[in-house]
Amino acid sequence: MHENFFHKVKVYYEDTDSGGVVYYANYLRFLERARTEALFSIGYSNQKIREKFNSIIIVKSCNIKYQKTAHLEDELKIRSFVKSISKTSFFMNQIITRSDDEIVNAEIHLVFINESGRPMRIPEDIYSKFKPYFCDTIKV
Question: What are the chain's domains?
């Protein structure tokens, strides 16, 4: 069984439209924050990856399904886990919930690139620290 990263977010006024509903693009910000915290939890940051490996992680694609709306002052939980991985990229599933309600379900394709913008092998140290968070299906 794989493990999950969890991150909590509270919805502020700035996250909503005039009706108090979270603006759809702000869910992407919430997901980004959760991925950043997942990196921190394994001892890395985007800055550390840039400095140590001369690389960055970019979003190649995002498939997001909006199931329900979140509202002003809702407390949301974001569950993130690695669905599959290759030599240079991985797919992360992220699910935003409010209590038992699924608000958003997203699949994010993340790629490691070098300073020239070309895909590069995921550094072994990062790969091994992410390993407990992989689903059972790992593609090589």
Answer: 5-133 (3.10.129.10)
Q: Which residue has the tokens 């005039």?
A: 18
Contact present, 24 and 66 (Cβ < 8 Å) = yes
Q: Cα dist. 6→9, 15, 30, 34 in Å?
A: 10, 20, 12, 7
**Which two tokens mark 72?**
């002003």
Neighbouring CB atoms inside 10 A of 115's CB total: 10
Residues acting as catalytic residues: 17
| DSSP code for 23 | P
Give the model's confidence band at 128: pLDDT under 50 very low, under 70 low, under 90 confident, else very high.
Answer: confident
What pTM did the predictor assign? 0.89
Residues 47-76: pLDDT tens digits?
Answer: 999 999 999 999 999 999 999 999 999 999
In angstroms, what CA-CA distances link 16 with 21, 35, 62, 108? Answer: 5, 22, 21, 23
Instruction: Note the maximum CA span of the chain.
Output: 47
Could you give phi then psi for residue 20, rounded to 5 degrees? 80, 15
Asked whether the beta carbons of 15 and 44 are under 8 A apart, the reply is no
